[in-house]
Amino acid sequence: MRKKVTVVGAGNVGANVALRIADKELADVVLVDVIEGVPQGKGLDLLQSGPIQGYDVHVTGANDYEPTANSDLVVITAGFPRKPGMSRDDLLFANYEIVRSATEQAVKYSPNSILVLVTNPLDAMCWAAAKVSRFSKNRVIGMAGVLDTARYRTFIAHELGVSVENVTAMVLGGHGDTMVPLVRLTSVSGIPLAELLEPAVIDRLVQRTRDGGAEIVRYLKTGSAYYAPSAAAVEMVESILKDKKKVLPCAALLEGEYGIHGLFVGVPAKLGSHGIERIYELKLTAEEKAMLDKSAAAVRELVDVLEKKFG
Q: Second label for 198, Cα 20 to 30 Å away, from 79, 138, 266, 272?
């Protein structure tokens, strides 16, 4: 029997997630959105690409969750972008309500599914989905580290004029200004980055990575990134559906790892058919640990705001 994936949100990220899943023939896809006609139209358009692209998967769209029943995996991309005049808390509360509703419906129709969160603020939305779903911690996963690491690898490869495939890197922490690219463990075909670039250049690339999303928003003006975020989400989806057991930086619920308790924070995790099958606890330097603690504290601030309002 074919696998089945529900993608919540038929905007740019969601539609591209659906497209990449279909292109890779990973699963049948149900695209869900509250806007009448949009998921149906995009789903039909994607379905009609099949004869040309050479994929044989079923893509449908819906405004309710009944067609999503028995999905193996649910990718939640729906949410508001931050608009002028909107406070951080306004965005947090608005997207909490979207993620809460989506999670409730996903759990109702697909109680055995694995949830992959893409909606921002990512780490706090993972906490919300875990709270609402009551799923075991291996079945709620956030997409951020894969994207942040891809940006980091891209900038390094371009700076050095080498293939992105030769760059090995890992970005930990929350998805935002406090993310932690691990320079010490970054290499190009095994050559430590510190032997290839001056510290000032490395610092510049690290900062550009932290500002990666904002840089794209500045160019687009009315939207945010969606090609790389969708590719990152689908790398996770593929590892889970194919039981590839890739070790990827994902937002995972920590219960003492890295000295962090009860928060979703980006860490290296093995993704297989059961979701997160192992969290790898790296031996960090004092400086790296301090940066990760600062990142976790930023996530804690958001979670505290949600707990105060919603309990």
A: 266
